[in-house]
Each structure stands twice: as C-alpha cells, then as structure tokens.
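Hi R.,

Here's the chain you asked about this morning:
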Amino acid sequence: MGRRQTLRARTRVREANRHGRGPRERPPAGGVLARDLGWRREALSAWWCGLALGGVLVLADLARGSLDWPRGGCWAAIGGALVAVLRPVRVTAGADWLAARGLLREHRVRTDLLTQVRRADGIAPRLVLRDVGGNRVELDPRVLAANPLLWHHLETGARRARERGLLREGAVPLAALADRIDGEGARAVLRASGLD
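And the predicted structure, written out as tokens:
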C-alpha cells in the first residue's frame, strides 16, 4: 500500500512538472504574499549587538594602549560573527510555497507538495518541512504564531497536500501549532475587547 501511494505522489509531481509547476521551480520575486513582520526589528537588533561588542572591544584595547590594525580587525571580525549568529532567518510565503532565507542562501518548499512536517525540539524548537522534491525548510514556530498570514499560507498548502495523500507525517505538530496560534489569537481578541 505504501508503494502505491509513493507511485501516486510521483505521478502527481510529474503532472505538476508538465504544467510548469515543478517542486524546484522558483516563483517570481513579486510572488511574495506574506512575510515575517518582526524580521527587520530582530535583524537591526543583531546589527546593534555586533556593533556594540566590536565597539566595546576596540575601546577596551584603545584604553589599554595596545590597539593596532590587526587587533582592530580581529575585534571587527568578532562583532561580525555575532551579527551572523544572531541574525534571524527571513521567512516569506506565496501561493503554494514557503521560504526561509538565511545568511548565505534561501531554502524553499512547496507547501501543496509537503510530505513531512516534524517538530525538532532542543535549545531552540524548530519546525522542519519537507516536500516531494526533497526540499527542506527549518523555521522557528514562533514566527508562524506571530504572523498569521504566514501561518495561513502554510496551513492552506498543508491541507492540500493532505487531501492529495502526500502529507502522511505531520498532523500532530500542525494541530499543536494550530491550537497554539488559535489560542493566542483568541486571547488577543479578548484582551482587546476588555473581556480578559
């Protein structure tokens, strides 16, 4: 039975490729319908932290009287490394796709062709999405909770993938995330209306 479902999934991917909607095809740049609204603020905070650390190190070295070009370059590199570590992933979504752009490259999945959604717990919980084409995206579930439009695009695509029989693993993490997002939304409405 599992083999029959896999064959059906491959057939659907071939049909999608024939119609110009292949899993690895990138939509046009103007196809962004939703984005992480808090990304700019977090990225700016990362830059300020990196600049502050580099500045403090340079000032401390200057006060000691041992600042020279190699040491100043080293302190600037340490500040730049902090920016690279703290800079958040930029999450965007469009019609049937979700993308996460890191420091060097962008990872993109087709939400209507998802095969797996799982939650990776650890120091920072992550939501891992995989599609039929083997593409993989990791993102912080709090980004989806903070941006209902991103969540809507992911949930709509996942529902289509489930209806097609592609998404066989991932109902539990998506349901838990939906409960969390719906609960937070309901609390925000009650708080705004003064009933909470």
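Confidence is low (pLDDT under 50) at residues 18-30.

Let me know if you need anything else.
M.
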